[in-house]
Design brief:
Blueprint (H helix, E strand, L loop, with lengths): L6 E6 L2 E6 L10 H16 L5 E6 L4 E3 L12 H20 L4 E5 L2 E3 L1 H8 L2 E5 L8 E2 L16 H6 L1 H10 L5 H6 L5 E3 L4 H12 L4 H32 L6 H14 L2
Parallel strand pairs: 2-3, 3-5, 4-6, 5-7, 6-8, 7-9
Antiparallel strand pairs: 1-2
Helix pairs in contact: 1-2, 2-3, 2-8
Length: 262
Amino acid sequence: MSDDRILFYEVKGRVAQITLNRPKAAHSFNLPLMKKLHESLLTADQDERVKCILLKSTGNKVFSSGIDIKSTTPGDLEYLESMRIYGRKNTQYMLLMKKPIVVQVQGTAIGYGMELIMASDLRIFADKPKEEMFFRMPEIAISIYPQTGATILPLLSFGLSYAKNILFTADEFGLEELKNLNFPTRIFSPDKLEIETKKFIRTFSKRMESFMFLVKSSLTLMNNKMIERWYDLEDKCGEIAYQKKSQKEMEEFIKNLYEKYP
């Protein structure tokens, strides 16, 4: 598939619609898709016509399966570093940009796919059982240290206890668990998800844009420095995560982290 077709961007009314379109790869992210998402977010945020953003993907089974492992070559350090940089840029920008993001979730989300859902401001889900739609943060289980916001976003979305749960166990969880955490904004039956999301976002986009921008920005500013520090902390940990260090050396490193990030 041409790189021009892996993401669709269009403005309808006052809404910028960003649609992931790598169905044969379960909407997983290679570097071209990472870059296109970043470009689309910047374009939408700077477009005077746009009041809010809708993020979605094509098909009805998978929202996004995360990072495309097959696209990464372990020895290609430049490619891996670019993936990390753009992965972080996208989720951090989603949190800090002025325009609200609504995500439409019609299927399973794993790893980076789940991060995009957590980085969005409002979340609309298809009403499906866990057997048909599940969520998972598998990074630790597959020996990949998270450096794209995977330690920050669960903490912001769910709190400390459940963040530890999903990161340490890598267990699958479903919509019922998310409902118990008051995570979904709306839930609709799968056959009505598209039309109800359109109704929701049409109503939402009629709000005064100054109110929308200022409410998100004021909430963001309250947490801005914390978010930036958390991303930097995640990077610092990622720098040594694959190094073989003794427990004493690790204790010294963590002690220094406490001093640097009081």
